[in-house]
Protein backbone atom coordinates (compact mmCIF):
# COMPACT_ATOMS: atom_id res chain seq x y z
CA UNK A 1 0.00 0.00 0.00
CA UNK A 2 1.28 3.49 -0.89
CA UNK A 3 2.71 5.28 2.19
CA UNK A 4 0.74 8.44 1.54
CA UNK A 5 -2.50 6.50 1.20
CA UNK A 6 -1.70 4.57 4.38
CA UNK A 7 -1.09 7.81 6.33
CA UNK A 8 -4.34 9.25 5.00
CA UNK A 9 -6.25 6.14 6.05
CA UNK A 10 -4.75 6.21 9.54
CA UNK A 11 -5.58 9.89 9.99
CA UNK A 12 -9.10 9.35 8.68
CA UNK A 13 -9.64 6.42 11.04
CA UNK A 14 -8.42 8.48 14.02
CA UNK A 15 -10.60 11.43 13.01
CA UNK A 16 -13.69 9.25 12.62
CA UNK A 17 -13.05 7.65 16.02
CA UNK A 18 -12.68 11.05 17.69
CA UNK A 19 -15.85 12.31 16.02
CA UNK A 20 -17.76 9.23 17.16
CA UNK A 21 -16.50 9.56 20.74
CA UNK A 22 -17.27 13.28 20.75
CA UNK A 23 -20.78 12.74 19.46
CA UNK A 24 -21.43 10.05 22.05
CA UNK A 25 -20.25 12.32 24.87
CA UNK A 26 -22.34 15.18 23.46
CA UNK A 27 -25.48 13.06 23.41
CA UNK A 28 -24.94 11.77 26.93
CA UNK A 29 -24.12 15.21 28.33
CA UNK A 30 -27.37 16.63 26.96
CA UNK A 31 -29.35 13.76 28.41
CA UNK A 32 -31.02 13.13 25.06
CA UNK A 33 -30.31 9.41 25.07
CA UNK A 34 -32.70 6.85 26.50
CA UNK A 35 -31.79 3.55 28.17
CA UNK A 36 -32.75 1.81 24.93
CA UNK A 37 -30.49 3.96 22.73
CA UNK A 38 -27.63 3.58 25.21
CA UNK A 39 -28.08 -0.20 25.15
CA UNK A 40 -28.12 -0.17 21.35
CA UNK A 41 -24.87 1.81 21.33
CA UNK A 42 -23.30 -0.62 23.81
CA UNK A 43 -24.37 -3.63 21.73
CA UNK A 44 -22.99 -1.99 18.59
CA UNK A 45 -19.62 -1.56 20.31
CA UNK A 46 -19.69 -5.25 21.26
CA UNK A 47 -20.22 -6.07 17.56
CA UNK A 48 -17.30 -3.87 16.52
CA UNK A 49 -15.12 -5.54 19.17
CA UNK A 50 -16.26 -8.98 17.94
CA UNK A 51 -17.83 -9.79 21.31
CA UNK A 52 -20.84 -11.33 19.66
CA UNK A 53 -22.20 -13.28 22.63
CA UNK A 54 -22.31 -10.10 24.72
CA UNK A 55 -23.92 -8.19 21.85
CA UNK A 56 -26.55 -10.89 21.42
CA UNK A 57 -27.47 -10.71 25.10
CA UNK A 58 -27.96 -6.93 25.01
CA UNK A 59 -29.98 -7.02 21.78
CA UNK A 60 -32.22 -9.72 23.22
CA UNK A 61 -32.82 -7.66 26.37
CA UNK A 62 -33.93 -4.75 24.19
CA UNK A 63 -36.23 -7.00 22.15
CA UNK A 64 -37.78 -8.49 25.30
CA UNK A 65 -39.03 -4.99 26.10
CA UNK A 66 -39.63 -3.80 22.54
CA UNK A 67 -40.00 -6.68 20.04
CA UNK A 68 -40.49 -4.24 17.13
CA UNK A 69 -37.14 -2.48 17.54
CA UNK A 70 -35.68 -2.90 14.05
CA UNK A 71 -32.11 -1.97 15.00
CA UNK A 72 -32.08 -4.51 17.83
CA UNK A 73 -33.58 -7.22 15.62
CA UNK A 74 -30.99 -6.51 12.93
CA UNK A 75 -28.21 -6.53 15.54
CA UNK A 76 -29.43 -9.83 16.94
CA UNK A 77 -29.49 -11.40 13.46
CA UNK A 78 -25.99 -10.08 12.75
CA UNK A 79 -24.58 -11.33 16.08
CA UNK A 80 -26.09 -14.78 15.46
CA UNK A 81 -24.63 -14.76 11.95
CA UNK A 82 -21.15 -13.98 13.27
CA UNK A 83 -21.42 -16.66 15.95
CA UNK A 84 -22.53 -19.09 13.27
CA UNK A 85 -19.59 -18.12 11.07
CA UNK A 86 -17.21 -18.95 13.90
CA UNK A 87 -19.07 -22.19 14.54
CA UNK A 88 -18.60 -23.26 10.91
CA UNK A 89 -14.81 -23.42 11.26
CA UNK A 90 -14.80 -25.25 14.60
CA UNK A 91 -15.76 -28.74 15.60
CA UNK A 92 -18.75 -27.63 17.64
CA UNK A 93 -20.62 -30.38 19.54
CA UNK A 94 -24.00 -31.52 18.30
CA UNK A 95 -25.69 -29.85 21.26
CA UNK A 96 -24.34 -26.40 20.29
CA UNK A 97 -26.92 -23.78 19.27
CA UNK A 98 -27.64 -23.60 15.56
CA UNK A 99 -26.70 -19.95 15.25
CA UNK A 100 -27.04 -19.78 11.46
CA UNK A 101 -30.57 -21.17 11.51
CA UNK A 102 -31.50 -18.70 14.26
CA UNK A 103 -29.90 -15.88 12.26
CA UNK A 104 -31.92 -16.85 9.21
CA UNK A 105 -35.14 -16.65 11.24
CA UNK A 106 -34.21 -13.25 12.68
CA UNK A 107 -33.33 -11.76 9.29
CA UNK A 108 -36.63 -13.15 7.95
CA UNK A 109 -38.61 -11.55 10.79
CA UNK A 110 -36.88 -8.22 10.25
CA UNK A 111 -37.46 -8.25 6.49
CA UNK A 112 -41.15 -9.09 6.94
CA UNK A 113 -41.54 -6.39 9.58
CA UNK A 114 -39.96 -3.73 7.38
CA UNK A 115 -41.88 -4.84 4.29
CA UNK A 116 -45.12 -4.64 6.28
CA UNK A 117 -44.18 -1.11 7.36
CA UNK A 118 -43.79 -0.13 3.71
CA UNK A 119 -40.60 0.02 1.69
CA UNK A 120 -39.25 3.58 1.34
CA UNK A 121 -36.06 5.61 1.67
CA UNK A 122 -36.17 5.35 5.47
CA UNK A 123 -35.65 1.59 5.52
CA UNK A 124 -34.18 0.84 2.09
CA UNK A 125 -30.61 0.48 3.39
CA UNK A 126 -31.73 -1.72 6.31
CA UNK A 127 -33.67 -3.99 3.96
CA UNK A 128 -30.78 -4.18 1.49
CA UNK A 129 -28.16 -5.24 4.04
CA UNK A 130 -30.64 -7.64 5.64
CA UNK A 131 -31.28 -9.34 2.30
CA UNK A 132 -27.53 -9.41 1.57
CA UNK A 133 -26.72 -11.00 4.92
CA UNK A 134 -29.60 -13.45 4.70
CA UNK A 135 -28.27 -14.41 1.28
CA UNK A 136 -24.86 -15.15 2.77
CA UNK A 137 -26.42 -17.28 5.52
CA UNK A 138 -28.53 -19.16 2.96
CA UNK A 139 -25.36 -19.67 0.93
CA UNK A 140 -23.50 -21.10 3.92
CA UNK A 141 -26.42 -23.42 4.65
CA UNK A 142 -26.42 -24.71 1.07
CA UNK A 143 -29.69 -23.06 -0.02
CA UNK A 144 -28.13 -21.50 -3.11
CA UNK A 145 -31.35 -20.70 -4.97
CA UNK A 146 -32.66 -18.57 -2.11
CA UNK A 147 -29.20 -17.08 -1.62
CA UNK A 148 -29.17 -15.91 -5.24
CA UNK A 149 -32.68 -14.47 -4.87
CA UNK A 150 -31.65 -12.55 -1.72
CA UNK A 151 -28.48 -11.20 -3.36
CA UNK A 152 -30.44 -9.92 -6.34
CA UNK A 153 -33.08 -8.29 -4.13
CA UNK A 154 -30.37 -6.59 -2.05
CA UNK A 155 -28.70 -5.15 -5.15
CA UNK A 156 -32.03 -4.01 -6.57
CA UNK A 157 -32.85 -2.18 -3.36
CA UNK A 158 -29.43 -0.60 -2.92
CA UNK A 159 -27.01 -0.94 -5.86
CA UNK A 160 -24.12 0.25 -3.65
CA UNK A 161 -24.38 -2.98 -1.66
CA UNK A 162 -22.97 -4.78 -4.70
CA UNK A 163 -19.69 -2.88 -4.34
CA UNK A 164 -18.81 -4.46 -0.99
CA UNK A 165 -16.89 -2.67 1.80
CA UNK A 166 -15.01 0.48 0.86
CA UNK A 167 -11.27 1.10 1.21
CA UNK A 168 -11.53 2.66 4.67
CA UNK A 169 -13.76 -0.14 5.98
CA UNK A 170 -11.29 -2.72 4.69
CA UNK A 171 -8.45 -0.85 6.36
CA UNK A 172 -10.26 -0.87 9.71
CA UNK A 173 -10.93 -4.61 9.24
CA UNK A 174 -7.29 -5.20 8.25
CA UNK A 175 -8.35 -6.51 4.82
CA UNK A 176 -5.61 -5.75 2.30
CA UNK A 177 -7.52 -7.32 -0.58
CA UNK A 178 -11.15 -6.67 -1.45
CA UNK A 179 -13.30 -9.65 -0.38
CA UNK A 180 -15.79 -11.25 -2.79
CA UNK A 181 -18.93 -9.13 -3.13
CA UNK A 182 -22.50 -10.37 -3.36
CA UNK A 183 -22.42 -9.26 -7.00
CA UNK A 184 -19.47 -11.61 -7.60
CA UNK A 185 -21.20 -14.41 -5.76
CA UNK A 186 -24.57 -13.87 -7.45
CA UNK A 187 -22.93 -13.98 -10.89
CA UNK A 188 -21.06 -17.17 -9.98
CA UNK A 189 -24.17 -18.85 -8.53
CA UNK A 190 -26.29 -17.95 -11.55
CA UNK A 191 -23.75 -19.57 -13.89
CA UNK A 192 -23.38 -22.69 -11.75
CA UNK A 193 -27.12 -23.17 -11.22
CA UNK A 194 -27.61 -23.00 -14.98
CA UNK A 195 -25.44 -26.12 -15.34
CA UNK A 196 -26.67 -29.70 -14.91
CA UNK A 197 -26.65 -30.65 -11.22
CA UNK A 198 -23.79 -33.10 -11.68
CA UNK A 199 -21.50 -30.38 -13.07
CA UNK A 200 -22.15 -27.66 -10.50
CA UNK A 201 -19.45 -26.41 -8.14
CA UNK A 202 -21.40 -24.30 -5.66
CA UNK A 203 -18.90 -24.12 -2.83
CA UNK A 204 -15.30 -22.88 -2.80
CA UNK A 205 -14.31 -23.01 0.89
CA UNK A 206 -11.07 -21.05 0.45
CA UNK A 207 -13.04 -18.16 -1.14
CA UNK A 208 -16.29 -18.54 0.84
CA UNK A 209 -14.41 -18.01 4.10
CA UNK A 210 -13.46 -14.51 2.93
CA UNK A 211 -17.08 -13.39 2.67
CA UNK A 212 -17.95 -10.80 5.30
CA UNK A 213 -21.25 -9.59 6.67
CA UNK A 214 -22.74 -6.30 5.51
CA UNK A 215 -23.50 -3.51 7.94
CA UNK A 216 -25.52 -0.35 7.75
Rg, nearest Å: 18 Å
Figure out the total of helices: 10
Morphology: globular
Specify the structural class: mainly alpha
Order of SSEs: HHHHHHHHHH
Mind summarizing the main beta sheet? none
* Beta-strand percentage range: under 5%
DSSP strand count: 0
Q: Could you report the average pLDDT, rounded to the nearest whole number? A: 80
Specify the helix fraction band. 55-70%
Please explain how this structure is put together.
The protein has 216 residues and is mostly helical. The protein is built from 10 helices and no strands. It is globular. Residues 166-176 have low confidence and may be disordered.
Per-chain topology:
Layout: H1 3-30, H2 35-48, H3 52-65, H4 70-88, H5 99-117, H6 124-140, H7 144-157, H8 167-172, H9 182-193, H10 205-208
